[in-house]
Design goal:
The protein is an alpha+beta fold and 276 residues long. It has three helices and 18 strands. The chain has a five-stranded mixed sheet with strand order 10-17-16-12-13, with no helix packed on it. Strand 2 and strand 3 form a beta hairpin. The two termini are 38 Å apart. Belongs to the semaphorin family. It comes from Anopheles epiroticus. Keywords: Differentiation. GO terms for molecular function: chemorepellent activity; semaphorin receptor binding.
């Protein structure tokens, strides 16, 4: 599929696999040299080989068929696939709206940088989150609830801007800084020196930013029986809320797992049961 935007031509490839996936790749010219980049991966049908793909320019959709189902994929799945500026601006079908902080089908005035020529194009669109942390607590910072598969093998770097050291790259270690499976950062036992801004970068582009304020007020130990009872009661209340939230998360996780392994899919156009 060839797309021409502002005199720049892009070629988008959709590649089907025997594992039931569609790889979306863009090809473009940069300084006269042909470049390509993986934009997205669609899970069509687990372990079902893609047999046929057909493009409809009229409906702006790609139709994909396995032996057991047919599915429709919109060519411009901007807001449904990209929830941040970093990925949105790489897709020639899409552009980032700074005013609404949304990924939309491309039109003049939206941010777009398919060729990665302006690495800081999204910096002003990144939401700067503020967190107040109690002295001695640990805090989790993250850009993704679940990191997209196409980014899993890319290097994510965290930087801390502190009053004492200025800007420096964080080095992971088990006693202070821990990297999560979703490329987040856990800061252990926060103290005054840990206050300041934390920026997460991928390939030179800013993904997310946090500003941490440390509440250095030290708690004094209770000196009355009633004080102990109140603290214990507050702790029990918080723990019950945690257990309730955990049960809710486990229930939703189970529902997601069942949906992922189900033969049905919201984009199914046709599905049939295989002959036995």
């Amino acid at each position: 599929i060839k797309i021409e935007i502002l005199s720049q031509e892009y070629t988008v490839f959709y590649i089907g696999t025997n594992a039931g996936r569609i790889y979306k790749i863009v090809q473009y010219l940069r300084n006269g040299e042909s470049k390509s980049k993986l934009l997205d991966i669609f899970e069509i049908a687990q372990n079902e080989a893609i047999q046929v793909m057909e493009l409809s320019q009229k409906r702006k959709s790609l139709y994909v068929a396995t032996d057991y189902r047919i599915k429709q994929i919109d060519l411009a799945m901007c807001n449904r696939r990209y929830d941040n500026c970093f990925r949105c601006v790489k897709d020639p079908y899409c552009g980032w709206d700074k005013d609404t902080s949304m990924c939309k089908p491309y039109e003049p005035g939206l941010l777009q940088d398919v060729g990665n020529e302006t690495y800081d194009i999204c910096d002003t669109s990144v939401l700067k989150k503020k967190i107040i942390v109690t002295y001695g607590q640990s805090v989790h910072l993250g850009c993704f609830v679940k990191i997209p598969e196409i980014l899993k093998d890319q290097t994510v770097t965290w930087y801390h801007h502190s009053k004492e050291k200025g800007r420096y790259e964080i080095k992971y270690n088990p006693t202070k800084y821990i990297e999560t499976t979703e490329r987040g950062l856990v800061v252990i036992s926060v103290n005054e020196a840990d206050g300041g801004r934390y920026d997460c970068h991928l390939g030179g582009s800013l993904l997310c930013s946090y500003n941490i304020t440390v509440d250095a007020h030290r708690c004094t130990p209770p000196n009355k029986t009633n004080d102990y009872q109140k603290i214990y009661s507050d702790w029990c209340h918080e723990f019950e809320k945690y257990k309730s939230a955990m049960k809710t998360w486990e229930k939703k996780q189970a529902q997601c797992s069942r949906q992922n392994y189900s033969n049905q899919h919201p984009n199914d156009v046709f599905a049939r049961t295989p002959n036995v």
